[in-house]
């Protein structure tokens, strides 16, 4: 049985084909304008899902980068404070050794005691170092200062730690333990109490004992060890910063591979579709010749 094909059927089919070709050309032109492989999620749902997953990873990597920068600033501030504290305690140790010399007269001992008092005040200032309004050596305490001056000074911090997440699996501490570094008067090993005791002994003419010298050595070593720990964590953060920077580059390459359009390929695709559309128009015009009815309408 033969199927009858009327001019109306041919015209309708030709119109559909032309509309389809025109729509594809418009889509390619839009993609070339946006430089994106797809304009809407419906154009390529699979690629859109992959792109959204990569963008979520990019957002997380950006947050890790901010956390690393903030943590690095915390630890750099702590390191600077402990560097100054180390210098102060080294000076205090030298003065203590001088004070142990029995040949020094009373005026000399009082001068040394005054310098030790000054060092104690400066050291207390370093122990109250802050970063962006928060105490470096007081955990998560909201107190105005880690230590309140007194005899002995009062520690206002708590036992919690300040941490920053630097990857999906890693967090790192970015503050420093004040009592562990500067000692605690509750345990009788506070460096502030030690300086007060040595200065008082010199003022009273009692002199400096070998136990005082040993305690000063211990206090200096404790601060140095505290600084070493801070330095190790800072180095870990810097390594994490490099790793995160590489991850950011890799993720951007992944996103670009999914979303971004190859400009040269886009140009060729548009030109090819333009030629196909023009050819379709030309063929349709030749096949569907005007009839008498077209002029009578």
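Sequence proposed for the structure above (297 residues):
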């Amino acid at each position: 049985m033969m199927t009858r094909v009327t001019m109306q059927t041919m015209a309708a089919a030709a119109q559909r084909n032309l509309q389809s070709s025109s729509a594809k050309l418009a889509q390619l032109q839009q993609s070339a304008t946006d430089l994106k492989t797809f304009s809407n999620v419906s154009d390529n749902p699979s690629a859109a899902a992959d792109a959204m997953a990569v963008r979520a990873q990019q957002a997380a990597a950006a947050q890790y980068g901010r956390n690393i920068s903030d943590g690095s600033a915390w630890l750099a501030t702590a390191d600077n404070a402990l560097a100054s504290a180390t210098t102060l305690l080294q000076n205090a140790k030298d003065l203590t050794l001088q004070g142990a010399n029995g040949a020094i007269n009373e005026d000399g001992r009082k001068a040394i005691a005054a310098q030790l008092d000054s060092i104690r005040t400066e050291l207390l200032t370093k122990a109250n170092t802050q970063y962006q309004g928060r105490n470096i050596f007081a955990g998560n305490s909201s107190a105005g200062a880690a230590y309140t001056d007194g005899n002995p000074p009062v520690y206002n911090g708590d036992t919690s730690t300040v941490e920053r997440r630097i990857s999906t699996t890693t967090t790192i501490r970015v503050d420093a333990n004040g009592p562990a570094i500067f000692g605690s008067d509750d345990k009788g090993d506070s460096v502030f109490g030690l300086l007060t005791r040595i200065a008082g002994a010199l003022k009273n003419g009692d002199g400096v004992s070998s136990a005082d010298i040993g305690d000063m050595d211990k206090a200096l070593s404790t601060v140095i060890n505290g600084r070493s720990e801070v330095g190790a964590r800072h180095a870990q953060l810097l390594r994490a910063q490099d790793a995160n920077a590489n991850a950011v580059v890799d993720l951007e390459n992944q996103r670009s591979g999914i979303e971004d359009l190859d400009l040269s390929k886009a140009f060729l695709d548009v030109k090819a579709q333009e030629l196909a559309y023009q050819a379709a128009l030309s063929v349709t015009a030749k096949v569907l010749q005007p009839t008498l009815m077209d002029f009578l309408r």
